[in-house]
Amino acid sequence: MSATRSAVCALVLCSVARIALAGPGNEPIPLPTNPANFYIRGTQPNTLLDFISPPEECGACHGGVPDNYYDWQGSLMAHAARDPMFYAALDIAENDAPGIGDTCLRCHAPQGWLEGRADPTDGSALDFADRSSVSCSICHRSVDPFGSPGAPSIDSTILADLGSDAPIQSINLNGQPGHNGNGGFVIDPLNRIRGPFPVGSLPPGQNMPPSTNCNWFHNTFLGQPAYESAIHRRSDLCASCHDVSTPHFIYNSVNDEFSFAGTGVTEPSGNKYRMMPQQRTYSEWRNSQFAAGGVNMLGRFGGDNGPTVIQNCMDCHMPKSTGNMCNFVAIQRNDIGRHFLNGASTWVMEAIARMHGPEGDSELSFDTVEAMAEGVLRSRKMLKCAADLDVTVVNSPQPDPPQLRVRVINQTGHKLPTGFPEGRRMWLNVEFYDLCNQVIDPIAVFGQFDEVTHTLDSASTKVYEAKIGPNSNLAPIVNLPAGPSFHVALSNQVYKDNRIPPRGFSNAAFVGINAAPIGAAYADGQHWDDTFFPIPPNASGVRVRLFYESASREYIEFLRDRNPNAGTPGTRGEILWEAWDNNGAPPMPVLMASFPPTYETDDGMPPCSLPDQDLFALDPDGDGIFSLVKPGDANGDLAVNTDDIAAFVDALLEGSVDPRLLCAIDFNNDQQLDGGDVQGMVDLLITP
Predict the structure, then answer these.
(1) Does the predicted TM-score (pTM) go above 0.85?
(2) Which of 71, 509, 566, 620 is 20 to 30 Å from the Cα of 318, by its Cα?
(3) How far, in Å, CA of 560 to CA of 566, rounded?
């Protein structure tokens, strides 16, 4: 079969599978929800006394060295309200559960939500200012929602003024506090800025670290003081938008499931742990060794002055650097958090830059597009630092063949991968070779990714992912089959979650935050996973790689084909498809790690190698292949003993030129098997 014909057949099969995944033929039946189902405690729309300031105003003073404004422009936080995948997903979610967009827009377009432009909940009323998404003022006007120690004294009044809208701390299923989520933030009604450092009130240049000169400037030019806020030094600041539940499904203790709450009903206490879990990134961190005191990561993450011990989200995603807090103050600090805010976003940032940069509608400047390109490179680097691979040959008892044990080690402070479950996945690609020191055509491949159809052979390898969908009680109501589905708003059960937990993991703790492994078993304390692959006969080498996708082809096609107006040109599903397809050049998966590790990578980004790693010992030839051949292993069983004598003699008599045998028994390195190799074989058997 020709390569072209194979590719076409694969696309047809993929389309059939996509239709089967989407539903049983008929369109899903929406749930009878409205915005009241998605009410979340916290600051409510149209209650701010001062509007959210444009980020450009902050950049005027905070665009020096480091240039925090430029750094922020290069993050998805600045463009979450431009993300075409978000809008395509929002269309389907709104159709499935009307009003759910109120929850989504809280975090993707917080300014628009706060200022009343999230009605209607499909985002159609958002304006240009809202597209700056999580801007400076959103974070720096954020109030500790529970008035923890270190909060400015004015916060208690702000919280009291919220009345019944004041957040109530979520309590997990183990009875432990877990902060809030679902965009339940509290924003200062006035433009009073908060930050992580002590604030001084002296004129410029007279406050010395640890104090800053914020108060003088902010009182003079903004008419409001600035405040030191302890939550701006803690991961709690990230909790509001990085723990997400679907509020219209609440825990039903009778059925031990998450059940539809009913029209206009939400979880009465606002406890996210009694709602259907969708993302638990903050809770995963909170129940890890990182939160319990920190982990010495030996410089794996961090900026110029990054801490050795990693504890909070900021330590990795806002690494420390030296510079000035303000353009008008010459005093330097060595603990300024770079506003990189990088995660795992790559292709969607590139798509946004194409759509809205100088080559698109020119909404974004050349400088912003340049900042985004730098942000993509940092995200690729972060992905390479997120995991390590360790590969070992396990000699199984005969007659079972030996196996290759591939261990993926989670080096992050949360699950790997974490975040939203739809389409996001990580997998192992294992290629066995029978030629010594050459990467030509593998003799066996596990986890092959077809670069023509952009589909993955998931059946032959380990895929790390989470899958949710409707259970057997909900399925007939919404006209979907029970089981995994991309219809997030119609999903009330987790069917798979084999993502690798972080250091400090315990099964009991993760049950308590609705994040227990499903379809996988991890022992308490385990932050790695092992997969075993059979080694083909006479394989001489292997290459192992770990890849990541933030959206599979299947998910992108689902968002295109299941749009409420699918088939109509210009739908947000079609816009996403065009952005992803990129004129027939869809994004390739990101290479996270390889074994043996090498500095030669396709994307130009080196691996996250630490100084004590001996790359030469793992790959002395520098060919990217881990050798499975042992000198003297003439019969290819990965062991050297008297059983190899007969195979060695046969090779000499037949004059074999089998490349694998040349690797194993060409002791004098003359590229042929002859009597010159006998002494080497004898010496090896006498003294292994």
Answers:
(1) yes
(2) 509
(3) 7
